[in-house]
Design a protein that fits this description.
Blueprint lengths: L6 E2 L16 H8 L11 E8 L3 E7 L2 E8 L3 E8 L11 E7 L6 E9 L2 E2 L3 E6 L3 E8 L2 E10 L2 E12 L2 E15 L2 E9 L2 E11 L2 E8 L7 E7 L22 E2 L9
Parallel strand pairs: 1-18, 5-6
Antiparallel strand pairs: 2-3, 2-17, 3-4, 4-5, 6-7, 7-8, 7-9, 9-10, 10-11, 11-12, 12-13, 13-14, 14-15, 15-16, 16-17
Length: 263
């Protein structure tokens, strides 16, 4: 059976720092959908993400995400390095290396993943401008391109993926989602999947920065909430942190290290 991607995209785990906080929900939704290591504005950082089943805490060094601490079914730490070679790895646990790539007028990084010092096949290339984000996964047997396109009061999500077998594309899958601003409330927007209203997003200012919450369907409480705070208040590296062991069978992870079960 063809192997699934090691770099599965997770909506609930992605975030981007941005300066366009105009109390417009679609702008912030755009900000949520890029790798957290690409920073457009250093004034705000993603601090933490809470869902029903897990929490993620982002730890910074020199203004960049260096660790992600997750608590859920498992507790684990994802280590992130910027523009280094393999010699900088601890060779224990899950470690990511992000390397800048050339792209005119565009922020660009290539991300590779190591588990206990072993390189996973494939890479993720992330590109971002003020109104466009792409995330492209390339593996010997798998390809995925995810795009976010920001329009006035609308954010468009497009995703196309396929597997390769004997040189042929198989299992081609495509999907599209829309984030549409509420015409009467600039702090709210709706997520539509297959033309059906799937969730409501709300922008919530607070004394440390702001949060963005997502409520699915008719639930009376958020399904996920993302907290952004001023850069000067973000958590820095703590030297006493101990690495968390990850079971050897946990070979498939999303962008921030969460285990993905595959068939």
């Amino acid at each position: 059976m063809i192997r699934k991607s090691l770099f599965l995209i997770s909506f609930a785990m992605l975030a981007l720092n941005t300066a366009t906080f105009a109390n417009k929900c679609t702008d912030v939704a755009f900000s949520m959908n890029a790798n957290p290591n690409i920073s457009i504005d250093p004034n705000f950082h993603i601090d933490s993400i809470y869902t029903k089943s897990s929490t993620q805490k982002f730890i910074y060094a020199n203004g960049k995400v260096a660790e992600v601490h997750e608590k859920g079914e498992k507790e684990q730490i994802l280590y992130i390095y910027h523009d280094v070679d393999k010699s900088s790895l601890k060779n224990t646990g899950l470690e990511y290396i992000l390397t800048k790539c050339e792209a005119q007028d565009t922020l660009c990084y290539v991300q590779t993943i190591y588990q206990d010092g072993e390189l996973f096949d494939g890479s993720l290339t992330v590109k971002a401008t003020h109104d466009y984000i792409s995330q492209e996964i390339e593996q010997p047997d798998y390809h995925q391109l995810t795009e976010f396109i920001l329009k006035p009061d609308t954010l468009i999500y497009k995703d196309e993926s396929y597997e390769r077998y004997m040189g042929y594309k198989v299992s081609l899958k495509t999907s599209t989602m829309l984030y549409v601003a509420d015409s009467s409330d600039d702090t709210k927007c709706s997520l539509y999947i297959n033309e059906k209203n799937y969730a409501t997003l709300s922008y919530n200012p607070n004394e440390k920065g702001f949060s963005i919450s997502m409520t699915v369907g008719d639930l009376d409480h958020p399904s996920a909430e993302y907290f952004f705070i001023e850069t000067s208040k973000t958590s820095s590296i703590r030297k006493t942190v101990k690495p968390v062991k990850i079971a050897p069978k946990a070979r498939y992870f999303d962008l921030l290290g969460r285990f993905k079960f595959t068939k």
